């Protein structure tokens, strides 16, 4: 069952508490600057709104009509679902199912997948050059990421029929006339909002990252993609605890910053609770 993942976050956080100075991490979290945390929360809401618009844009190029209000409401609900349900993608699956009217589940699912994939592509596009800020460890990650991206491109171009069909839909969504500039603009806003929110949370616990936020935050966010947790909890904190010392901060500060970011992300999805109530 997927719900065994519910046990992963508390177990990982408990392990981190034992490995690092747990009370110091808790003290940093208690001392969070509320204004900086609220600014991070605002940025995460900007990210949700821009993501909803990117989904609507992507769906439109695939022949699926989504109203702006529908896209925003569904994205808030999906964000909350991704944060509290095991696997981190059940919220997205739900919005694909609910939005399938008129086009079918296949197209609706492709629109959701391509929209989310755009976010990962943007993250890698920033991370690859940003790793140059860490020259001592850059070569290995750059090579690994390059191999993964190359393998994905080969699969889309020369893989099985389903992969080629998905690749064709990606080209429609991203390379149709007028698509690419809007896709790039929205992806840039979303990525900047995510990184900015995490950096603000880190500053809020007394650990400003400076320019290294461009590499440390994406690496911490990538840990959330591992489907072994709920909302990335535990995995993200572990990554931050390992990475933050590269910026001269403590592991405890990294864990506190990650928890503050996780709480802000959870709070940003709470308006999704209103969606079912309003629809009734």
From TrEMBL:
GO terms for cellular component: plasma membrane. InterPro entries: L-PG_synthase/AglD. The chain crosses the membrane at residues 37-55, 117-137, 143-163, 184-205, 211-235, 255-278. It is a multi-pass membrane protein. Pfam families: LPG_synthase_TM. It is found in: Cell membrane. Keywords: Cell membrane, Membrane, Transmembrane, Transmembrane helix. Its main location: membrane. It comes from the Bacteria. PANTHER family: BLL5419 PROTEIN. This is Flippase-like domain-containing protein. It comes from Halovulum dunhuangense.
């Amino acid at each position: 069952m997927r719900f065994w993942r519910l046990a992963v976050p508390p177990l990982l956080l408990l392990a981190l508490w034992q490995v690092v100075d747990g009370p110091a991490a808790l003290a940093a979290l208690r001392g969070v600057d509320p204004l900086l945390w609220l600014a991070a929360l605002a940025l995460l809401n900007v990210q949700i709104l821009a993501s909803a618009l990117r989904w609507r844009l992507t769906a439109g190029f695939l022949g699926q009509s989504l109203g702006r209000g529908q896209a925003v409401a569904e994205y808030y609900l999906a964000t909350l679902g991704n944060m509290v349900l095991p696997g981190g993608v059940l919220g997205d699956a739900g919005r694909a199912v609910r939005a399938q009217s008129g086009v079918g589940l296949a197209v609706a699912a492709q629109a959701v997948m391509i929209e989310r994939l755009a976010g990962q592509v943007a993250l890698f596009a920033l991370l690859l050059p940003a790793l140059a800020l860490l020259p001592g460890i850059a070569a290995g990650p750059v090579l690994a990421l390059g191999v993964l991206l190359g393998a994905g491109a080969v699969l889309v171009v020369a893989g099985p029929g389903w992969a080629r069909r998905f690749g064709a839909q990606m080209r429609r969504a991203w390379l149709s006339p007028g698509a690419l500039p809007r896709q790039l603009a929205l992806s840039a806003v979303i990525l900047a909002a995510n990184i900015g929110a995490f950096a603000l949370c880190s500053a809020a616990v007394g650990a400003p990252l400076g320019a290294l936020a461009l590499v440390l935050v994406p690496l911490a966010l990538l840990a959330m993609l591992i489907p072994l947790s709920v909302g990335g909890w535990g995995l993200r904190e572990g990554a931050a605890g390992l990475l933050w010392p590269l910026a001269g901060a403590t592991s405890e500060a990294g864990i506190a910053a990650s928890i503050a970011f996780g709480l802000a992300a959870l709070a940003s999805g709470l308006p999704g609770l209103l969606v079912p109530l309003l629809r009734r």
